[in-house]
Amino acid sequence: MVPLTHYLIFSAVLFTIGVLGVLVRRNVIVVFMSIEIMLNAVNISLIGFDRYFDQNDGQIFSFMVMCVAAAEVSIGLAIIISLFRNKPTVNLDEFNILKG
């Protein structure tokens, strides 16, 4: 059996990669993928705790996180496509359309 620390270290590394991708990159698609990496890191930690405590609650919460991520992908990609139609760039620094 894999110890809990391996799950948590792997999850922390993935979450750190996701945070760095959001903070460093300016491409909308890369930022969007980094958010998905962070959600997958949360799923890994939930499954790790689920296996450690020998319950099924982590799998249920992980499934709910995947459902939220799927909804986020569909809405997020629709917003990205509509923004790309108005201004043909995917650079976050050039999007000032949403400012009130």
Ordered list of secondary-structure elements with their pairings:
Blueprint: H1 4-24, H2 28-53, H3 57-86
Number of domains: 1
Overall outline: elongated
- The SSE order reads HHH
- Our count of helices gives 3
Strand content: under 5%
Overall CATH class: Mainly Alpha
> Which structural class do you get from the secondary structure elements?
mainly alpha
Helix content, binned percent: over 70%
For the largest beta-sheet, the strand count, sense and barrel status come to: none
According to CATH, the fold-level topology is Helix Hairpins
Note down, in words, how this protein is organized.
Helix content is 77%, strand content 0%. It has one domain (4-91): Helix Hairpins (Orthogonal Bundle). It has helices spanning 4-24, 28-53, 57-86. The longest helix is centred in the last third of the chain and has 30 residues, at 57-86. The relative contact order is 0.14. It has three helices and no strands.
Which descriptors would you attach to this protein?
mainly alpha, Helix Hairpins, elongated, 3 helices, 100 residues
Question: Can you give me a brief rundown of this structure?
Answer:
By secondary structure, this protein is mainly alpha-helical. Helices cover 77% and strands 0% of the residues.
